[in-house]
Every structure is written in C-alpha cells, then in structure tokens.
C-alpha cells in the first residue's frame, strides 16, 4: 500500500486549512510540511506556527521535512506544535543518532533524508534506527522542479538496504512526483510519495489528484 503525502509548499496559503481538509478527505495518508531556512537551501518557507495552525485541522499525521542547517535548534518547537514525524538531512548531521533519540524520546517518528548527490549506502548504518528514509528526487529548495531520472536506481538501491536493515522503515520520495513519475518510483520500491505541485497545482483539483496518484501507486 503506497501512501500519499501532499506537500503544502505548493498550496494557496490563503486557503491552507480548507486545502488540508480537502486532501485529508481525498485519502492523503499524511501532510508534508517543508521547512527551509535560507542556509541549507537557498529559500525560506515556514516554521512551527504552521504546524500549530494545522494541528486542529486534521487527524492525519503531520510530517515536518527540515531543510535547515541546524535541525536540533528547532526540534522542540516543531514537536510542541504537534508534529508526528520529523525528517532531517544526513548532510547536516553526519552522526544523526542524538537527534533520532531526541525525536523518539518525545514519542514521535524520525526520518532521515539525503540529497541526490549523496551515495545511498551512507544511510545504511542508520536505517535500523529510523522510521523513514527520504530519498530526495530533486535538490531541495523549491517546489515544481523536474524529477531527476537517475533517482530510480537510487530508490531501488535504498529498497534493498531497507530490506536488509529495517524492513518496516518507510521509503519516501520527494520532488517532481506526479502521475508520470509515480509508477516508476513505486516499482523501484518507494512506499510514500510526497507531491506538491502535482496535487495543489492540479487542473482538476487536489481531490482528483490525490485519488489519481493513489490509484497509480496501488
Ligand atoms: C523540495 C521539497 C519538496 C517539494 C515537492 O524542496 O522538499 O517537498 O515541495 O514539491 P513538488 O512536488 O512540486 O516537486
Ligand atoms: Zn519535502
């Protein structure tokens, strides 16, 4: 069963609550919240106030993707605001174990992300400790970028590592996921699809887009 995680980065923020309710009803498994600090990535996005604002809007899990240089500094704020899962990057925490422990001690799920230029096997030592591994399929920083096609092999490689080290770990992909690219990443082993533009920018609206992606990925 493949889970759909709409990324609100592509949503119309003047209607954020309604749009989150809509994708929730359409069958989204979780809501993906992209946090950017202008340092780790060349863009700014949102902070914990958005998590706090969305917490009463949906019972689906809120997952925070921290694209920030110093994730430890912001962790408590997101946990207190109501995040269920916190994902941070191996690029900024070469030893991610202390942060993973802090997230687990708070009773929440931990995810580890890595960029398209990071050798996939560098995540292997930590797969046994996390609930989710996020294989970036674009360089993070902006929504609406084209899927990097060589990511398919990386997803396949990550799936093999997950089978060996932690079969219940989620394999999530993020960046350029749409009706064209979804079937390939699912066939390669992804079981959580993040999609921003393909859902909130869809011509026929977010409900149809969530259902279509879920059907393709089933
Ligand atoms: C990339 C973010 C993604 C992004 C996905 O910097 O981590 O979550 O918003 O957006 P789309 O689906 O538009 O590529
Ligand atoms: Zn993301």
Automatic annotation (TrEMBL):
Residues that span the membrane, as ranges: none
Cofactor note as given: Binds 1 divalent metal cation per subunit.
Pfam families assigned: Ribul_P_3_epim
Gene Ontology process terms (BP): pentose catabolic process; pentose-phosphate shunt
Residues engaged in binding substrate: 7, 65, 141-144, 174-176, 196-197
Key words of the record: Carbohydrate metabolism, Cobalt, Isomerase, Manganese, Metal-binding, Zinc
Residues binding a divalent metal cation, per UniProt: 32, 34, 65, 174
GO terms of molecular function: D-ribulose-phosphate 3-epimerase activity; metal ion binding
Similarity annotation: Belongs to the ribulose-phosphate 3-epimerase family.
Protein name per UniProt: Ribulose-phosphate 3-epimerase
Annotated organism of origin: Fimbriiglobus ruber
Lineage of origin: Bacteria, Pseudomonadati, Planctomycetota, Planctomycetia, Gemmatales
């Amino acid at each position: 069963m493949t889970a759909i995680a709409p990324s609100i980065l592509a949503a119309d923020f003047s209607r954020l609550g309604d749009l989150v309710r809509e994708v929730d009803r359409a069958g989204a498994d979780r809501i993906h919240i992209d946090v950017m600090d202008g340092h780790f990535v060349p863009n700014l996005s949102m902070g914990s106030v958005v998590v706090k604002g969305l917490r009463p809007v949906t019972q689906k899990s809120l997952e925070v993707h921290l694209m920030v240089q110093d994730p430890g500094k912001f962790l408590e704020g997101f946990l207190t605001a109501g995040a269920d899962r916190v994902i941070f990057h191996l690029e900024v925490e070469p030893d991610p174990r202390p942060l993973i422990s802090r997230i687990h001690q708070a009773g929440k799920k931990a995810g580890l992300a890595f960029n398209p230029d990071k050798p996939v096997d560098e995540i292997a030592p930590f797969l046994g400790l996390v609930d989710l591994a996020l294989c970036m399929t674009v360089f993070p920083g902006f929504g609406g970028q084209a899927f990097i096609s060589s990511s398919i092999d990386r997803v396949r490689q990550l799936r093999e590592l997950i089978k060996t080290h932690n079969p219940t770990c989620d394999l999530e992909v993020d960046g350029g996921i749409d009706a064209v690219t979804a079937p390939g990443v699912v066939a390669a082993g992804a079981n959580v699809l993040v999609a921003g533009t393909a859902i909130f920018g869809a011509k026929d609206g977010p409900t149809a887009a969530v259902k279509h992606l879920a059907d393709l990925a089933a």
